[in-house]
UniProtKB/TrEMBL annotation, chain B:
It is found in: Cell membrane. The keyword Cell membrane applies. It comes from Nocardioides acrostichi. One of its GO terms (molecular function) is ATP hydrolysis activity. Its main location: membrane. SUPFAM superfamilies: ABC transporter transmembrane region, P-loop containing nucleoside triphosphate hydrolases. Residues 41-333 form the ABC transmembrane type-1 domain. Keywords: ATP-binding, Cell inner membrane, Cell membrane, Membrane, Nucleotide-binding, Transmembrane, Transmembrane helix, Transport. One of its GO terms (cellular component) is plasma membrane. Residues 368-602 form the ABC transporter domain. Gene3D superfamilies: ABC transporter type 1, transmembrane domain, P-loop containing nucleotide triphosphate hydrolases. It comes from the Bacteria. This is ABC transporter ATP-binding protein. The keyword Cell inner membrane applies.
Length: 617, 616
């Protein structure tokens, strides 16, 4: 990563801020998010909804079975002089079979509903995570440099989870709505007046929910944001554990963490207070409805407008729907977090920009590649606060096949930018880079990486075995892996690992030292036998004596035609000493080029740069 | 830095807490978060009121319908009004008490869990360096984030419902017994298999959710790769492979979650089956209790009305039982999270801090003594073999040796990042283990190879050395070590933002910040793990100068990688394969032909010579 590009991120708050759209989340937005899931997984949704409807229908059937048993079993048993005669074993078996049958079918409904909801939720999470990570892989490096790591990780995890949270109660809610529709119809058929009174309950529940959402959503959003912040602090603090420990700053770090953890606690409590107020209200509404129906019902029965049975039916239907109607509340309650999560995920998915590739294959010459850099210019990205300043301006030189060119320059002279351009992490604003005469932009995807291997200063290791980290999935035999490790002076410590090549290196290779990580990263480049090897200060964390052996291996490992061309960014004289030619960069321009001896002889600035340390002594 | 073992020996790993039972977990959890127990009795009382109310309301409604509305000879207005008012009062009481209960529960849970989160965070910093290094960073983070969130979700939603459900079960049982103890018994017998199988399912679920948690960790790690390794993935065009690895991790997580969900759904469905069985049982047994039937005797032991009422009571019983069992299964997930957080807290902390009883180190340059010190990583061979070493106060010592010789271990022992396996490390004659940790960190400062910077201003980073330093103090410290002009040249001076991990600065500048940080800390013993990073020569020169001034007037021990550092030291200590093989001034050692130091020197000179001689 270039130091300059990283600066852009911190200098541009609007770009870095997470919120793509501050619009409050409405129920419609929540339904739209669910619509996405239903369109994506229609079959699972259908299955789980059918399960839910089956469950609902059988809940009603339960009441019917009970009624049947009352009429045909219980009443006759007690009415008869001899219960045994009135109700035989056959009838009792029938009771058992009916109840168990209904119960078993209901169980099937439950399993279908819950498992279906789970499968749908996990699938949607998987779809989103795949899409988000694909986007991470597809978006250009410049995009990554503008977005903080913690935010991107949170987009792929917490936000995805929040987005699909409402799927869990979805089938039950849909089943409830079906039940509600049937119940409403039945109520209207039974007694219109009582039904109308009862029907105030449903809109009341929905309105209460909407108010609840409106009030609690901002706090839910804030809690989600704070969760990400708490996570970021923990990540950073644990990454810097050595500094914290050796300076005895555990207390201050804990305070820093506690401050955010307390803010999160307060936001969570705020959400809870709304929940505390609204949940009982939502539970009470149907009960109040039933009581009102009874009160009016008694009056109507007395005046002869209704009969008692109708009142009972309406009250009963209200009761049946009263519990599951809360699942609609759970569903709606999940909406605010879901919509916010969805918008964040969307902002990643909608991000545009990609690295277009050509269709040309890199010529396979079997020898070192020729890199030609012609009139190269690269500016700070717009909006970085650096105005129109250039990072590179009119840089031209070539690396001839099999030759070694050293890039030497002070900090911020543009070396790392040049390396990023050579590996095509970014494209130039002016000029061209050509590999064996082909513009890098015309090469097909993967062609550049097949010919050019870059070893960055900050070695990145995958959570994989040593072998996996070196081969990155390329079809390479173990002998070649060991050869590469040997050349990178990494064979010794790898052989000492408990499982050799199969040892897992853990997340970001944290179990290895900086120098060891660099050597694995170097072996990764060497094993591909690149035709152009770019070392961006790639052995900086390696002991000089080990570095000397690495350089010797690079120089002597292959000879003549088959030797890869080499572009090295270096500070150490030993590394510069490898070069056939030195390109001296100063403030984005080529100050001078020639052999090390020539430059020392004619360029005081160069001599000062490379001899600074010795002069001091 | 030396080579810590790559796979953690069991002794360096975190405690997983897997062996804790549910109640033990809750007990210890409450122990770590005492807030959870605050006002618990009041909350429980409210829960009792709420759960009684939730049974009373439907019973009252049922009574209104049965006896009021359906009374012989038309509705009984008086009775209906009475029951209606009673039910109304119950509704209000239930609502108010569940409001108060939820409120209290949220407040105590969130407070308690914030405490737990903070304690666990602090404890991660107190863990031994070795454990910190061998654990996945993401796993440590998830224990103070998502694991705690999970417990929180459970406590405030599940926990509440669970208490109310238990209450309802009790109240419903009491009402049933009042109606007919025989039928109440039938209901309980019908639910017995469910209760009996709970344990089995919970074990299954614990295992299944254990797998889920592991897969989450792997998935998070895989998902982070395209973000953290964005540049490498592109430079090597391994997008497809990376995506495949991510997809695999996502699929494995999905499969594990689905499996666990399957168990949950199946175990939940058992409640419904039990309810069906109970309903049938009540009717069958009820009929048997009718006059003239099997157990009914002549006059019968029950009325038809009781059986019908029972059918209604069973539904009041089943609801909370199902809710309760569901919560119990959800609880497994939360308990697993809780166990993992507790696991952090129960992993033995770093080295024992003698605390208030510990000794302080006198101010002024420190005298160092290694007394027959042996060190071995857990389950590993010794890295240092009985080394003894005296360093006079105020001297400048360079420790040199090949990679893996054990020289970095010397730095870690000296700063008490680890304790020796055998022998003692003494500062001013005091065993390091007897020095109060705070005093030790005050007097001894390690400048690590890679000076990690936090995503904040330069000033905030430097203040890690001394919390109360003003901007002027920082500027003064910078001048003291010759960095004044460098600081002034920065666009925003001490307020310059350094970016994530300090990446807005160059490697050399990060080292300067680390040195400034050390200067501000003003230690009496400076331990430097010399950065091997090659940096811009002009910066290198600055670093050299700053180091020179930082070391003056202090005892310093440098783990040296450079010839120049060794040359400049008062004394060079040569470590080879865990033993001190040579010591003395550079000039003397270099003259000892065939020695380890002579060899090292030759290779250093050869490197310099490469350039001096020029190239072909």
């Amino acid at each position: 990563m270039t130091t300059h590009a990283a600066q852009h991120a911190s200098l541009d708050p609007t770009e870095a801020s997470a919120e793509p759209n501050g619009r409050p989340a409405t129920t419609i937005d929540g339904l739209q998010v669910l619509g996405v899931a239903i369109r994506r997984e229609p079959w699972v949704f259908t299955l789980s909804t059918l399960g839910s409807v089956l469950f609902g229908a059988l809940t009603v059937a339960d009441a019917w079975v009970l009624g049947w048993a009352t009429d045909h079993v219980i009443t006759p048993a007690f009415a008869a002089r001899d219960a045994r005669e009135a109700v035989g074993a056959g009838l009792l078996w029938a009771v058992l079979a009916l109840f168990l049958g209904v119960a078993l079918l209901r169980a099937v409904g439950i399993v279908a509903r819950r498992l279906g909801a789970g499968i749908m939720q996990y699938r949607m999470q998987a779809h989103s995570r795949r899409a988000v990570t694909r986007q991470y892989l597809a978006l250009p490096m410049s995009w990554h440099q503008r977005h903080p790591t913690g935010q991107l990780l949170s987009n792929a995890n917490a936000d995805v989870e929040a987005t699909w949270g409402p799927i869990a109660p979805l089938p039950m809610a849909v089943g409830t709505i079906a039940m509600m529709v049937i119940a409403v119809a039945q109520m209207l058929l039974t007694d219109v007046v009582l039904a109308v009174i009862g029907l105030f309950v449903f809109p009341a529940v929905i309105v209460t929910n909407v108010v609840y959402q409106r009030w609690s959503a901002p706090w839910a959003t804030r809690a989600q944001q704070l969760r990400a912040e708490v996570s970021e602090i923990a990540h950073e603090s644990f990454d810097g554990a050595l500094v914290v420990k050796t300076l005895g700053r555990e207390g201050e770090e804990t305070e820093r963490f506690a401050e955010r953890a307390h803010a999160l606690r307060d936001a969570n409590i705020k959400v809870g207070l709304y929940r505390a107020a609204f949940d009982p209200a939502l539970a009470a509404l149907p009960n109040i409805g039933v009581l009102v129906v009874l009160a009016v019902g008694v009056h109507r029965v007395l005046t002869g407008s209704s009969d008692a049975g109708d009142v009972v039916t309406v009250a009963y239907l209200l009761t049946i729907v009263s519990f599951p109607i809360r699942s609609i509340g759970w569903l709606l309650g999940n909406f605010p977090a879901s919509v916010v999560g969805y918008r964040r995920v969307r902002s990643v998915l909608d991000a545009t920009g990609s690295m277009p590739f050509g269709a040309v294959a890199a010529p396979s010459t079997g020898r070192g590649a020729r890199l030609e850099i012609d009139g190269l210019g690269y500016d700070y990205p717009s909006g970085s606060g650096k105005g129109a300043a250039s990072l590179l301006d009119d840089v031209s030189f070539a690396v001839e096949p099999g030759r070694t060119v050293a890039l030497v320059g002070a900090t911020a002279s543009g070396k790392s930018t040049l390396v990023n351009l050579v590996s095509r992490l970014v494209d130039p604003d002016a000029g061209t880079l050509r590999l064996d005469g082909v513009d890098l932009r015309d090469l097909a995807r993967g062609e550049l990486a097949g010919a050019v291997a870059v070893v960055p200063q900050q070695a990145f290791l995958f959570d994989d075995t040593v072998r996996g980290n070196v081969t990155l999935g390329a079809d390479v035999c173990d002998d070649d892996v060991w050869t590469a490790l040997r050349a990178a002076q990494a064979d010794g410590f790898v052989a000492a690992l408990p499982h050799g090549l199969d040892s897992r290196l853990g997340e970001r290779g944290t179990s290895l030292s900086g120098g060891q990580r660099q050597r694995i990263s170097l072996a990764r480049a060497l094993v591909r036998r690149p035709r152009l090897l770019v070392l961006d200060d790639a052995t900086s964390a390696v002991d000089p004596e080990v570095e000397a052996r690495i350089l010797a291996a690079l120089r002597d490992g292959s000879t003549g035609e088959s030797r890869p061309s080499l572009l090295v960014v270096a500070y150490r004289k030993a590394t510069i000493g490898l070069a056939d030619e030195v390109v001296h960069l100063a403030e984005g321009r080529i100050a001078d080029r020639g052999t090390h001896a020539e430059l020392l002889g004619r360029s005081p600035a160069y001599a000062h740069l490379v001899n600074a340390y010795e002069e001091e002594r | 830095m030396s080579t810590p073992p790559t796979t953690a020996p069991s002794t360096t790993g975190l405690s997983t807490g897997d062996d804790l039972g549910a109640f033990a977990t809750i007990r210890r959890g409450v122990g770590y978060s005492p807030e959870l127990a605050e006002g618990l009795w009041g909350t429980l009382l409210l829960a009792v009121v709420a759960s009684v109310g939730q049974v009373v309301v439907p019973v009252a409604v049922q009574q209104t319908i049965d006896r009021g509305l359906g009374a012989d000879g038309g509705p009984d207005v008086g009775y209906t009004t009475l029951m209606g008012v009673l039910a109304g009062v119950a509704v209000v009481l239930t609502s108010v008490s569940s409001y108060l209960m939820t409120r209290r529960l949220f407040i105590t849970s969130e407070r308690g869990l914030a405490t737990l989160r903070i304690k666990a965070f602090r404890h991660v910093h107190d863990l031994p360096l070795l454990t910190q290094n061998t654990e996945r960073r993401g796993a440590l983070v998830s224990r103070v984030t998502s694991d705690v969130d999970q417990v929180s979700q459970f406590l405030v939603f599940g926990g509440l419902l669970f208490v109310v459900s238990l209450g309802q079960i009790v109240v419903a049982t009491i009402v049933m017994v009042v109606y007919s103890w025989q039928l109440a018994l039938v209901v309980w017998v019908c639910f017995a298999p469910l209760f009996a199988s709970l344990r089995y399912f919970q074990r299954k679920l614990t295992l299944a959710y254990g797998v889920v948690r592991r897969q989450v960790g792997q998935m998070l790690s895989a998902v982070s790769e395209p973000v953290v390794g964005a540049a490498v993935v592109r430079a090597y065009a391994v997008e497809e492979r990376t995506q495949t690895r991510i997809d695999d991790a996502i699929d494995e997580f999905k499969a594990a979650s689905t499996r666990a969900q399957g168990f949950t759904a199946f175990s939940f469905s058992l409640g419904g089956v039990s309810a069906g069985l109970a309903n049938a049982g009540v009717i069958v047994i009820g009929v048997w209790l009718a006059p003239g039937h099997l157990f009914g005797g002549d006059s019968g032991r029950i009325s038809a009305g009781t059986i019908v009422a029972f059918a209604f009571l069973v539904t009041l019983f089943v609801g909370p039982v199902q809710m309760g069992t569901q919560i119990l299964t959800d609880a497994q997930n939360a308990l697993a999270g809780w166990r993992r957080v507790i696991g952090i807290l129960e992993t033995p902390a770093d080295l024992v801090d003698p605390g208030e009883d510990g000794q302080r180190l006198p101010r002024g340059p420190i005298e160092v003594r290694f007394d027959d010190v042996t060190f071995a990583y857990p389950a590993g061979p010794p890295v240092l073999h009985g080394i003894s070493l005296d360093i006079a106060a105020g001297t400048r010592v360079a420790v040199v040796g090949e990679t893996g010789s054990g020289k970095s271990t010397v730095a870690k022992l000296l700063t008490r990042l680890m304790d020796p396996t055998e022998g003692r490390v003494l500062l001013d004659g005091i065993d390091l283990r007897d020095v109060r940790t705070r005093a030790l960190r005050r007097s001894v400062v390690l400048v690590p190879q890679e000076g990690f910077l936090f995503d904040d201003t330069l000033a905030a980073n430097v203040r890690y050395g001394r919390t109360d330093a003003s901007d002027a103090d920082i500027a003064a410290a910078a001048v003291e070590i010759g960095l004044g002009d460098w600081l002034d040249a920065l666009p925003r001076g001490v307020h310059t933002l350094v970016g994530q991990r300090g990446e807005s600065l160059s490697a050399g500048e990060r080292q300067l910040v680390a040195l400034l940080r050390a200067q501000l800390a003003d230690p009496d013993l400076l331990v430097l793990d010399e950065a091997t990073s090659a940096v811009d020569p002009a910066l290198e020169m600055r670093i050299g100068r700053a180091l020179e001034r930082l070391m003056s007037g202090r005892t310093s021990v440098t783990i040296a990688h450079r010839l120049s550092t060794a040359e400049a030291a008062d004394e060079v200590v040569v470590v080879d394969r865990g033993r001190i093989v040579q010591r003395g001034p550079h000039d003397v050692l270099v003259g000892q032909e065939g020695s380890v130091y002579a060899g090292l020197h030759a290779s250093w000179v050869a490197q310099q010579g490469t350039v001096a001689a020029g190239r072909g």
